[in-house]
């Protein structure tokens, strides 16, 4: 079917302003942050109501069309890439707050609301939405749900899954399901809400979400510590966690810091260390601050910390966070090949040492940049492309070594994708984290909710 014929199916429903066939729209809406597949959608649709989404799905089933959901297009797994003539369903116009209840501390929103807008809404009501990451200013809550987004606060607050108390979804058959209805306690059988969270749009489309909110953290304080190695990173984490409830524990290498420093962020202290930890906590009393300094001194005496600094103001806190939050931005021009891997926290030092040995051996001419949410066992391994090397050759070399990395992940019972999702980039490697039996059950679930395979086909796994 031609692109014009496909557009004519939806024009009576949405009109020409919300059925986009031009090349610019295809480039804008058919992609995410991955750079492997070129966008090639047949059509971009911009629904505004739940009923319109249902009708889009019904037409897709009747005509045998594939649908790709599109949120903020900040994903890193190509789950939102329309590379094979699919119809993109973009939720940019479904971006409203629908209901807020201060007693329940819950807000119901449409899927296109920007994550940062949700955070700001919470702040305006003296509350807090804690799921936070570098793309919060452009990602959408529907995409966050689709990938079960994590970020920098997981050690204290958990993943997106932990904050969704209700979902309305349109299944692959066009049915509207109202899941859990915002309840905190509900023991009435299968909770399909958790199936759709992290499903990458392969079961259906999220059209509403009820999100619980938390109290706002108070008197946040940051420590940035220079450490000699991964073993010492974990000793520092253990030492602080025994006495202080951390809201974040991040790490990054000197190479990662070098890229951020090149973008104008000042070095936190004069001493250069191989790795750095960033710890955040609520300094609710003088005693908490004093205890943090005592623990810092203990780590220095033990040789686990080389140097460090503690924020003394909100401005300094923000500046120290820039060291971590601007890494992705600063390495983006180098077309990084990203591995988003995780193991249980206790296994991190041995795991990272094995992985690092493999990539250093196989990529002697590539720059390797480590950073991540090490407090929850999640590391981001970034391999930077040399300027003179063609993108296709670079990705091919990285893919070859990824299998060796994922063999280590499998041996440590880890995950090949801690928070970025599977999409198309990690699809060939899903078997390193999921058994054949699990994948078989996942396919069966897919066929139940989406029997005609119209929902984001070719993502996560193939039928």
From TrEMBL:
Residue span, FAD-binding PCMH-type domain: 37-216
- Keyword annotations for this protein? FAD, Flavoprotein, Oxidoreductase
Oxidoreductase is among the record's keywords: yes
Cofactor(s) of this protein: FAD
InterPro entries according to UniProt: FAD-bd_oxidored_4_C, FAD-bd_PCMH, FAD-bd_PCMH-like_sf, FAD-bd_PCMH_sub2, FAD-linked_Oxase-like_C, FAD-oxidored/transferase_4, Oxid_FAD_bind_N, Vanillyl_alc_oxidase_C-sub2
Q: Name one Pfam family in it.
A: FAD_binding_4
Into which family does the record put it?
Answer: Belongs to the FAD-binding oxidoreductase/transferase type 4 family.
Tell me the protein's name: FAD-binding oxidoreductase
Naturally occurring in which organism (per UniProt): Isoalcanivorax beigongshangi
